[in-house]
Amino acid sequence: MTLTAVVAAAAPAQAAGYRYWSFWESGGGTTWSYATQGPATARPADGDAIGFRFAISSGTDDTSRPSPAPDFAKICGDTAVKDGSKRIAVVVDFGGPADAPPGEAPPTPPVETGCAQVRTDATAAEALAEVAKPLRYDGAAMLCGIAGYPARGCGEAVAESGGTDGTAKTPAPSAPAAADGDGGGPSVGVLAGGAAVLVLGGAAVWKARRRG
Question: Can you give the pTM of this predicted structure?
């Protein structure tokens, strides 16, 4: 099932946005750009940074980037180069109170960073699993929770209030991602074939609603 089907089936026609984890990348650890594929197929190089931001997206211009800069030197500077591996700076931004689902609050501190040292062909999803367990998935293999947040919900529609004030284009939804022992998600191999479809799902939802 694609993200389009998952979101459209559950969302009211007048939804102002969707609450989900977005996926960002930075080649060489410079500036954030929204990902053009899912973390299960993206393969960052040594020295790159990847970011995940929990936020409410309500179109093409308002989903926030991760708040910290993709500073590879700061995050991975103390991690030595090792043969057969690469170092990926991972940033997880849990968003603000306005982004939180009802009854939940962002973790403290609101940002988690770490240096994932993974094999040279590892995906972004595998790097995330090294830094921010447990991961949580829904039945359609969409990444719903990172480091246990949020505890419930996955890409749900949000009413006409709240949200964030970022200026970036809507990024690729963070689905599908790699499995880890705590998250119970499906394997990278099983999910890789559907990653490209899931990446484009969020944009398809908005286009369909505008035509309607």
Answer: 0.72
